[in-house]
Amino acid sequence: MKLSARDAPGYFARPDPARAGLLIYGADAMRIALRRAEVIAALVGPTGEEEMRVARMLAGDLRKDPARLNDAVKAASFFPGPRVAFVEDATEALAAPILAALEDWRDGDAQIIVTGGQLKPTSKLRKAFETHKNAYAAAIYDEPPSRAEIEETLAKSGLKNIGQDALRDLHDLARALDPGDFRQTMDKLSLYKLDDDTPLSPEDIAACAPASVEADLDDILHIVAEARSGEIGPMMKRLRAQGVQPVGLCIAGTRHFRTLYTAASDPGGVSQGIARMRPPVFGPRRDRMQRQAQAWGAARLEDALSLLTETDLALRSANQTAPQMALVERALIRLAMMGGR
């Protein structure tokens, strides 16, 4: 039987131990791994691994020994309780031994959990689970988590006292991160707020969120966008010492000012423009960039992007002889002076 995208999360959290098996397939290996772990934990409980009620096998193991899955399904455990026989990364080449074990399944046998990649609608493995009267097939799609999934993750992390601004940032963060990274960030937040009864704030989220590759460049870009030209020289010395490349700095500056321009030119206003950004801008950084976009305006931001484009072309020109970092620094100072007008 097929599990719809709406019904699948509920079943993953509360699977039926009387079912013969479950196939989870899709393109995102991390999402599949998280769902598979959730299902197995719900079936065998917290002590299932310790009590050897979970038999795991890779696709290669089953290829070498086709009878291994059926043996695991029929094997008796020293400990009472539900059992699981799990096959990881199954492909169409393993359809025969998996379907044989599914066909031979009887009440009291271990439940068969199979994970695979993108299986075509014509796949024997997929069709068998979808048409089986006592088994399920669930497709995992590479799409942003639903509100219910996000709230489920928050509940598992023990985060309860969440303000509206923080909740909005968490939803944005869930859409920007891989599911595993989001789960780890929530665990980090729960430890960060341990014994702290104050509401979760955007500042707390910003402190625990994974740092992006561009995070080291944020300071200089904020300095420029806020027209603090006197601070550019010392910051540039630090960036040179860290090995930041001129072209990379120019690209980061273009990305920053393009974000400001997109927000400033949004028909619904700067606030709505910032909210539509993908990847999302959240926490104090969002408020800061919103103020910058409002201060610059779309017209001056368009001029700023033109200056950055000219600088980028100069850096890549074969005829350019001036020091590249000096070119970028001069452009940033000009930008800061434009913003201060």
Question: For the residues shown, what is the average pLDDT?
Answer: 86
Number of helices: 16
Task: Report how far the terminal alpha carbons are from each other.
Answer: 66 Å
- Rg from Cα: 27 Å
Order of helices and strands: EHEHEHHEHEHEHHHHHHHHHH
Explain what the structure shows.
This protein has helices at residues 8-13, 29-44, 59-64, 68-74, 95-103, 124-131, 147-157, 164-176, 179-192, 202-208, 218-225, 232-241, 246-264, 270-275, 284-316, 324-339; strands at 2-3, 21-26, 54-58, 84-90, 111-116, 135-140. The protein is of the alpha/beta class and 341 residues long. Strands 1-6-2-5-4-3 form a six-stranded parallel beta sheet, with helices on both faces. Helix 12 packs antiparallel against helix 16 (324-339), helix 13 (246-264) packs across helix 15 (284-316) and helix 15 crosses helix 16. The longest helix is centred in the C-terminal third of the chain and has 33 residues, at 284-316. The radius of gyration is 27 Å and the shape is elongated. The termini are far apart.
Any key phrases for this structure?
six-stranded parallel β-sheet; 6 strands; 9% strand; alpha/beta
Summarize the structure.
With 341 residues, the protein is of the alpha/beta class. The protein is built from 16 helices and 6 strands. It has helices spanning 8-13, 29-44, 59-64, 68-74, 95-103, 124-131, 147-157, 164-176, 179-192, 202-208, 218-225, 232-241, 246-264, 270-275, 284-316, 324-339; strands at residues 2-3, 21-26, 54-58, 84-90, 111-116, 135-140.
